[in-house]
Amino acid sequence: MKIKYLYQQIASHFSVILIAFLILSLLFSHYMEKFVYDNKTEELVTYGQRILYDIEYDQHYSRQTLQQYGHVLDARDIQYSLFDESSAIIYSTGLKTPLIELRDEEWQSIKNGNVITVKQELKRFEEDVTFVLLPYMHRNQFVGGILLTSPIKGSRQVISQMNHYLLYTTAIALVISLLLSWLLSTFHVRRIRRLRNATSLVAGGDYAVRLPSSNFDEISELAGDFNSMVKQLNSSMEEIESLENRRRQFMADVSHELRTPLTTIRGIIEGLNNDMIPEAEKEKGLALASNETKRLIRLVNENLDYEKIRSNQIDLQKQNIHVSELLEIIKDQLESVARERNNEIMIAADSDTIVFADYDRLTQILINITKNSIQFTENGKIYLRSYTTEKDIVIEIEDTGVGIDPADIEKIWSRFYKAILSRTTNSFGEFGLGLSIVKQLVTMHKGTIDVTSEKGQGTKFTMHFPRQMNTK
After folding, report:
1. Please, are residues 136 and 52 in contact by the beta-carbon 8 Å criterion?
2. What's the Cα-to-Cα distance from 452 to each of 212, 374, 422, 459, rounded to whole Å?
3. Which position among 13, 197, 402, 429 has the lowest Cβ density within 10 Å, counted as fewest Cβ atoms?
4. 296 touches 258 (CB < 8 A)
5. Which residue has the higher pLDDT, 286 or 343?
6. What is the pTM of this model?
7. C-beta of residue 424 within 8 angstroms of C-beta of residue 430
8. Are 20 and 177 in contact (CB under 8 A)?
């Protein structure tokens, strides 16, 4: 059975308030009853003590004085009786019996000089009364006492009236509390419903929804957590969408890049099979087919390398490497490629700079970055530098090329990102995998790589490797 949260809230609030009022009402009623009876017995004791005092010390005390006290007390609905040491009544304004009926324990207690108070008594009197017994001691001897009685109907009327007022107050308080409970529950239900609607929007793919949040209570904090979650989901979806766009671009590039060399290779093979290529052109055709085949292998290897690095499936075989010698090798390998774009490779390296790294992977790092520098530089210079600081080994590769837009600097490490999408037919870094592999490899060497660039002012890659050497 489904019960709305609003009704649950109202029922819980009302139940708590009702139970609390019932308990408080019972306690208050009991307190008021005790207060009324205690007040009545205190009043009787006070009048009794006054009468006994006057009897003891007033020499002109007479029956007329007793009658005057009787008139005063009668106005207060109080009756009194004087009795002697044998419980015989000497004077009475109410009792018609000749003796005061006392229980043995009461009689013994009053003889000992104790005051006896009884809040309710019916058996020994014609009606329910509150009575007190005060002993009259003369020279420390019990010679009698005084009995004062007052019907409890007056006390009961007071208590009943108080209970009625209490009942009315409780009813009014419950109505007000029910109204406040309904308002408060409606307020919270509205907030929860708003959160639920926002959740439905997010489930439907709307990640721009936001809820007002604060530190007012847990629901407000939940709204803040919801906003953070939606913000992260939005970022994740944007990243997924970006990756999906890059994947589509990658597939388009793959289709384009693979179709061209495969078409070229297929054409050359068919030409050779059908003797459509002149003898003088066959060697050139075979060389072209070989170059296209190497290109395809290189592209496949770049993808395989990236997946191996991502899944930590390669082991670094570290050794001491003279950086200046390695930079000379990089220059020799790429100088012909740089010359095609009228670039010049220049080396500035300390001869004693040694880095502890995997030779093949470090070579791969430097070739990838240098190739990118050559790709985006024309009629310029590529500088290869290395030096040692107190903390690490620094290798820099700087060019005077077109530079990178500041907004694109962080994107260049993405797997499929290409700074210039139109350049898809170069002989290296076709799918933008090179720099992504570079960063992974530098990280595996416990190093860091940074890029600084300005549009039209060139780019500088700076790598920091920890200073450590193999002492074996």
Report:
1. yes
2. 40, 17, 23, 6
3. 197
4. yes
5. 343
6. 0.43
7. yes
8. no
423: how many CB neighbours lie within 10 A of its CB?
A: 12
Nearest to 250 by CA among 431, 438, 437: 431
b/e map of 438-468 (b: 16 or more CB within 10 Å)?
Answer: bbbbbebbebebeeebeeeebbbbebbbeee
> Whose structure tokens read 């490497």?
321
Here the tokens at position 432 are 């933008």
DSSP state of 132: E
Residue with tokens 């780019």: 459
CB-CB contact of 101 with 133 (8 Å) = no
Give the whole-angstrom CA distance, residue 125 versus residue 190: 66
Burial class (CB in 10 A: 0-12, 13-18, 19+), 257: middle
Number of H helices, E strands in the chain: 9, 12
Q: How many CB atoms lie within 10 A of CB 222?
A: 15
DSSP 223: H
Here the tokens at position 34 are 């005790």
- Contact present, 213 and 38 (Cβ < 8 Å): no
Do strands 381-388 and 344-349 pair parallel, antiparallel, or not at all (unpaired)? parallel
Place of tokens 């290897």: 301
Find all residues with CB under 8 Å of 168, minimum gap 6, and list them.
none
Q: How far apart are CA 421 and CA 253, in angstroms?
A: 9
Give all domains of the chain, ordered by start, each with its CATH number. Answer: 5-157 (3.30.450.20), 218-307 (1.10.287.130), 315-466 (3.30.565.10)
- What phi and psi, each to the nearest 5 degrees, are found at residue 320? -75, 125
Q: Kindly list the distances between the CA atom of residue 402 and the CA atoms of 322, 330, 372, 379, in Å, as whole numbers in the listed order.
A: 31, 22, 11, 11
Start-to-end Cα distance in the chain: 77
> Rounded CA gap, 461 and 413, in Å?
12
Q: Which of 241, 223, 230 lies closest to 207, judged by CA? A: 230
Helix, strand or coil, per DSSP, at residue 1: coil
Cβ neighbours for 183, distance < 8 A, ≥ 6 positions apart = none
Lowest-confidence range among 284-288, 358-362, 428-432? 428-432
Mean pLDDT of the residues in the chain: 80
In angstroms, how far apart are the furthest CA atoms of the chain?
166
Is 373:427 a contact under the CB 8 Å cutoff?
A: no
Which pLDDT tens digit goes with each residue over 16-32? 777 877 787 788 777 87
Contact assessment for residue 372 and residue 430, using Cβ atoms and an 8 Å cutoff: no
Separation in Å, CA 390 to CA 86, 186, 258, 347: 117, 67, 48, 22
